[in-house]
């Protein structure tokens, strides 16, 4: 019922949005004398703000057409190299001929960025991809919106997620560097542990976890406290809803993206109110640069996707209530997951000092449970003065966090080159 009410509300507001757009256009017309008055500028700004906060934001495009490598602009195309109904593996293909002709033959490390499956599209990591591109062959997981997947394609749960990660690592091949951003951390660690236990030829070279709830018992944040205070039945009753027609996934039970978005915004409501107040002021002042920055950010932040009921509920119970992975009690399709067996995959953890989603220590826990990885193949880093989003995006990420990741990948690659050569030869 909640999902249907949400859709009806969107439809009911459509005439008002159209009116606001028309009003803004009229009040900004250079032929309208009111456009040059303070009243006209304020009225136009109010119309723009109303339209922006009531609009439905669709999945954004990547808009990554080039990257700059050693001072040379290299064209980039986004290619789908593998897919299922639930995920596409995208590669940001740099123009290899131009790279070689301009800079000589290169062999950049492959990086698989495992995007969060927690309500936002993979495009939320637009800045992350752009930062990695000059020095790496970059791949990313583009998870499907559950409301767009018909029921005939069946269920998708946490175990399917792990299987997908394993298969995408295999698609890239030996020596991949897997970057788990936030929510995917436990699933990526489980996938890598299973590959190590099975002596998989495509075992990655490194796993890098950024703001991930590997052990959510440590430094619990508000979402962690909520997860432990409420029983499973509460989450199923309050958070799970049915997709209405005419979506392709009609009748599928999901955790709607708009519910997750409301939770995120509620945690920092005053910050979002201030941002929109500033947006209004910048519209009145015709500050185009800051207006566009606001629009770009919220076009990403307010575009959300649904998760399947089974994936969401298993994540709540296994990761945030029963902490099965750090306790050594997580089983994948009947096989116990053993992070303590991982010994050939380098490990780096990155946390933000002010992270209010995954508290400091939750990601570091990977070092404790991956006890067989040699000390020389580990790195733990806590970035001062950044919150959750700043761990993987923004200026501090690009200038302070990413250089450490880049150096870690290259250092570990040099140490592991003999092993990778043997695998390639085989």
Q: In terms of topology, how is this protein built?
A:
Blueprint: H1 2-28, H2 38-54, E1 66-69, E2 72-84, E3 87-94, H3 96-103, E4 110-114, H4 126-132, E5 137-143, H5 158-172, E6 177-181, H6 185-197, E7 206-210, H7 222-229, H8 232-239, E8 241-242, E9 253-255, H9 257-267, H10 269-285, H11 288-301, E10 307-308, H12 309-321, H13 324-327, E11 331-332, E12 335-336, E13 346-352, H14 365-369, E14 378-383, H15 395-425
Parallel strand pairs: 4-5, 4-6, 6-7, 7-13, 13-14
Antiparallel strand pairs: 1-2, 2-3, 3-5, 8-9, 9-10, 11-12
Helix pairs in contact: 1-2, 2-10, 5-6, 10-11
Q: What about the largest sheet?
A: 9 strands, mixed
Distance between the termini: 56 Å
Strand order of the largest sheet: 1-2-3-5-4-6-7-13-14
List the helices and strands in order: HHEEEHEHEHEHEHHEEHHHEHHEEEHEH
SS field, number of helical segments: 15
Key structural traits:
alpha/beta; 15 helices; 426 residues; three-stranded antiparallel beta sheet; nine-stranded mixed beta sheet; globular; 17% strand
Tell me what you see in this structure.
The protein has 426 residues and is an alpha/beta fold. It contains 15 helices and 14 strands. The strands form three sheets. It has a nine-stranded mixed β-sheet, sandwiched between helices. Strands 8-9-10 form a three-stranded antiparallel β-sheet. Helix 5 packs across helix 6. The chain is globular.
Could you give a short description of this structure?
It is built from 15 helices and 14 strands. The chain is of the alpha/beta class. The strands form three sheets. Strands 1-2-3-5-4-6-7-13-14 form a nine-stranded mixed β-sheet, sandwiched between helices. It has a three-stranded antiparallel β-sheet with strand order 8-9-10.
């Amino acid at each position: 019922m909640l999902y249907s009410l949400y859709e009806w509300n969107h439809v009911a507001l459509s005439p008002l949005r159209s009116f606001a757009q028309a009003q803004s256009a009229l009040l900004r017309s250079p032929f309208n004398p009111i456009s040059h008055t303070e009243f006209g500028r304020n009225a136009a700004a109010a119309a723009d703000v109303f339209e922006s906060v009531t609009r439905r934001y669709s999945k954004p495009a990547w808009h990554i057409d080039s990257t700059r490598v050693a001072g040379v602009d290299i064209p980039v195309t986004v290619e789908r190299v593998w897919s299922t109904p639930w995920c596409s593996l995208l590669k940001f293909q740099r123009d290899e001929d131009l790279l070689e002709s301009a800079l000589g033959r290169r062999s950049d490390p492959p990086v698989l960025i495992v995007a969060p499956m927690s309500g936002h599209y993979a495009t939320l990591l637009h800045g992350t991809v752009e930062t990695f591109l000059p020095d790496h062959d970059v791949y990313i997981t583009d998870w499907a919106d559950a409301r767009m997947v018909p029921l005939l394609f069946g269920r998708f749960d946490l175990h399917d997620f792990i299987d997908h990660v394993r298969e995408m690592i295999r698609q890239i091949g030996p020596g991949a560097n897997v970057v788990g951003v936030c929510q995917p951390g436990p699933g990526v660690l489980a996938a890598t542990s299973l590959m190590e236990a099975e002596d998989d030829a495509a075992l990655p070279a490194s796993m890098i976890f950024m703001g991930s709830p590997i052990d959510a018992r440590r430094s619990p944040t508000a979402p962690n406290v909520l997860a432990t205070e409420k029983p499973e039945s509460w989450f199923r009753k309050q958070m799970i809803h049915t997709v209405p027609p005419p979506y392709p996934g009609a009748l599928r039970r999901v955790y709607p993206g708009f519910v997750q978005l409301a939770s995120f915004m509620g945690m920092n409501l005053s910050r979002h109110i201030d941002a929109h107040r500033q947006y209004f002021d910048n519209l009145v002042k015709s500050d185009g640069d800051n207006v566009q920055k606001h629009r770009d950010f919220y076009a990403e932040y307010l575009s959300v996707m649904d998760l399947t009921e089974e994936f969401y509920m298993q994540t709540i119970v296994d990761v945030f209530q029963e902490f099965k992975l750090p306790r050594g009690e997580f089983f994948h399709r009947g096989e116990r997951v053993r992070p303590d067996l991982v010994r050939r995959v380098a490990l780096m953890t990155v946390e933000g000092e002010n992270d209010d989603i995954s508290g400091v220590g939750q990601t570091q826990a990977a070092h404790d449970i991956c006890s067989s990885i040699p000390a020389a193949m580990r790195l733990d880093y806590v970035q001062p003065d950044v919150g959750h989003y700043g761990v993987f995006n923004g200026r501090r990420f690009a200038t302070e966090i990413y250089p450490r990741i880049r150096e870690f990948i290259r250092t570990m690659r040099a140490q592991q080159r003999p092993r990778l050569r043997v695998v390639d030869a085989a």
